[in-house]
Amino acid sequence: MNGSDTSIPVYDAQSAVLAERYDDPALLRIHDPILSLLSDQPAQSLALDIGAGSGRDAAWLSALGYEVVAVEPAAGMRAEAMRRHAEADIRWVDDRLPSLTRVHALGLAFDLIMVSAVWQHIAPSDRQRAFRKLTTLLKPSGLLVISLRRGKAPADRPMFDVSAGELEGLARLYGIEVLRELRSNDQMGREEVSWTHVVLRMPDDGAGALPLIRGIILGAEKSSTYKLALLRAVARVADVAPATARPILGEIDEVEIPLGLVALNWLRMYLPLVRAGLPQAPRNSGPDGLGFVKAGFRTLIDDRLSGIDLRPGASFSGERAVAVASAITDVASTIASMPANFTRFPGSDKRIFGAHRSRAPKVGPSLFLDVTALWQWGSLTVPGHVWRALTRLGAWIEPVLVTEWARLMRSYADRMGTIIAVGVAEAGLVWEEPQRDTQLARAVAIRIRDMGRPVCCIWTGRPVPEAQLDIDHCLPWSAWPCGDLWNLMPSARRINQHQKRDYLPAKAALAAARPYIVDWWKSAWMDDPVLGLRFTREAAAALPLDEEPDVENIFAALEWRRLRLRQDQQVPEWSGVGVPL
To answer: Coiled-coil regions in this chain (predicted)?
Structure first.
């Protein structure tokens, strides 16, 4: 059921009656014509059920072996569905077509999207946008199944006319293959109602941004490393802080990210390169030839700041705060006037990235680089397909970027008659990750124990003696080096080192640990005003959190981040204490 129409109040008011009517398992026979297609999907495929209603189809998909995300905008129907199918493995989202803003913010791609008995509720003027939003959520070779209702509409639920021809036209427009059109009678016995399932498939080259990204990286000889720097700065946002992205509403498929964060990543990349004297343009002008190297940047060089110092969430005071803010402002100006301006679509004057600068923020005695502050420098728009490729395929794109950047610096050095020693260029391009430091979490655990309160292993719920206490990265450091407070949790050493190790907790294992994780977050971080602020800011930057940053919402966002890490990197899972891997 679509959330943009006037039917939502009806579904809310009649939720119990309608859920009872639609939740009949016998009605699943309507999907018989497509059952063979769905059964052929690989294990642990991810399905999206839009307009999930009573939860009947979502539970059916779960029984088929899918991991299911169910979207239902009517609160009453959603509550009924969750009650009726509490045992099914379903994640519920309050969202709606045509925008699906919350689903897109999760950064997931789906093997199957089902839109059952929904399309007739979408106004014809919204359908092109709705179809585009659906296709951008599909994996290559993923299936989109839309059922079309024909027949007289109920008096209290107005509906629009639908046709398979309209969907065929939209499929041609967005390069989606129409596999089948299957007609069936109404399973509720309404003679005046019939249904058509339209099954569509995303081609294998559905990640169409890759040729474009490859062109940016390996295209014609560049007059500087700026285009590579901009692409890598955006890629680092997609990898580490994807929750900062905001979908742009409207017909254009784009997201916007904080320009201040892109500029901060730019600083992190260029500081070691400029310090090492590595050429960034084919002329021997040194740092004076780089437009962003002004007073603020020079102060950072002299101050010996590292990349870790210039991370989201860092704070500065006094002259250093002024220098950091000034350097970000200068970089934002350079990005807007140079690489964002001159990185164009092939054979076109259209810019790929759009830099929208704001007036540089005033800096007081201190500067705290949280997400809110980083938006103050403006925004950078990124095409939706490019953003999705960077979030899903960043682990493969990053090495190509770094290799080409190193090659480019060596070619500039050759023109100047100098030689860059083997490995020096690559060393300058290493992205400094946070150190694997668990000392703060351990100190807080000891403090809690000294106050007479037990510190429990989040995987067993049992108190852990200090000698057997480990601090575990819930989402493993080896797959995603994140030392944020929300990711540091107490664990019994035998569990951490001999069972969980570098595995990703499976969904059931994480769900079983939920009360212990939430209790730890409250006692370790939220009860302390300073650490609590850091905890929520770090969670807001790294997790898909679109609600108040309380521990319950942060845990829900952690579950979504776990799912995405499993999907993007195929990290092996740990099933839980005492369960064989």
So the answer is: none
